[in-house]
Amino acid sequence: MSKSLKDFYVIPEVDSVRTIAIASACSDDIDLACEAVKIGIARFIFIGNAKSINEKLVGMEFPKDMYDVVAANSEHESASLMMKLIQDGSADIPMKGLMQTGTFMKAILESDQGLRTSQLISQITIFEGINNKLQLLTDCAVNIEPDLKSKIGIINNAVEIAVNLGLNNPKVALLGSVETVNPRMLDTMESAVITQMNRRNQISGCTIDGPLALDNAISFEAAKKKGIQSDVAGNADILVAPNLLVSNTLSKAITYYANKESASVIAGTKRPVVMTSRTDRKNNKLNSIAIACYLHTKL
Amino acid sequence: MSKSLKDFYVIPEVDSVRTIAIASACSDDIDLACEAVKIGIARFIFIGNAKSINEKLVGMEFPKDMYDVVAANSEHESASLMMKLIQDGSADIPMKGLMQTGTFMKAILESDQGLRTSQLISQITIFEGINNKLQLLTDCAVNIEPDLKSKIGIINNAVEIAVNLGLNNPKVALLGSVETVNPRMLDTMESAVITQMNRRNQISGCTIDGPLALDNAISFEAAKKKGIQSDVAGNADILVAPNLLVSNTLSKAITYYANKESASVIAGTKRPVVMTSRTDRKNNKLNSIAIACYLHTKL
Asked: What is the ipTM of this complex?
């Protein structure tokens, strides 16, 4: 597997550059798109207030053949037009601009022309971890308090993304605050159950172990000191958080305390979806666009 | 407030060096003590298997006046003798060696000669955060799923420690995954309640705000982007986690992803207590000893 997110800034032949449709594209989105175009990772369709968008584009060095503008009068219409562009093949990847997450996700998951599959929808943060490799952390955005079945869906989605990024049979750590199973701590019980289901091939394509505290999951030194026997401990590729409170805090520690680059992807949809937060750092947004384009080539 | 944990490596006059009694001192503990003595932050009493301890000390450059050895035949006896040494004034600070946490804490909290107060017992991790200052994170070790009343105890303990470290009226962020109050997410409701109790002076000596996601708590840039009006956001001194899963994972991210130095203290006891984990990094253990000695001077 690659060591850096920049490895996925693949510059494809011009005819294969993916087109991203941004619903309710705002000024920041257009600046971001301009950078993505300069790097050569995508072209764009800006959907929203055409007057504002065109005014923003005046004076920018944005190659005219690398964007289109589609007028929409509301968030709802923006989202609806975005999905139409995906359906008719004019765009490859939908992206959230400055609009409510709920409005965006509703359009993405609509029953008739949406991108819903039978899989659970989940989010994955990909970041430049320790042990000199990329690591995946899930779910930092969609599932607040996943039950056992949802956790299995979250794992399957992350394994699929890891494989598409070039990592076969990823090592999956189920995060906890301890490495022992404690009947009074539900997350440790569920981690034990999922680990055993993996041994019985009820969850396949990966090697799972948990519960593991973060240090035991990612540091050989810490796992060794604790005497943990595990194929995953010390070298996890995928970190599965017990809930959103943990994943959200951990993902922000990775950005703000450790200053590591990351990308965010939505999994479980028919095709990649870009949904960044307006508080994400610019590089992380670019990484997310690049990863979505890369994953689109794997469809 | 100081910017570095090294600022608390105060080298006192010889007659005021604090004496630390280590219950069930093992080989690693003696190596650690030797380093602490070299830096000049403490002297030690090693309690445990006297033969093993003395064999370990042979050939070490450990000044003879900087340690004593007390024989004990079991973990229980070690812990009991440690508390006797504290009671009779031979030692100032109790420290856990290689023994069960439960045995150690039981001795510390014993009703007759223990160190229990009317306060809740909690743990605080002090680390070199961002914004060029020390930050406190609590509770990473003792309270698994604190209720509202326990959270208030945890906050009061952390504020007391912060003040003793030189920080008056610390800014306290109540961590969550969002900054909005959501009636379906209990932690956000409790954070709102605690924030308002602080405004009513039911919790004093600090400025509290929450819920705040980690980025909003520690990054001005993130808080500004979200438009959060707060005296705490972007500049928190104390981070209060909603539960142990969050704090444990965050504290390990700070060590393993961000490579930041930290110290761990127990609060709510009559005097400082050193309780490090055998998986803690050596520097973090030294920091914990130094901070305990420093806090002892504030009694």
From this structure: 0.87
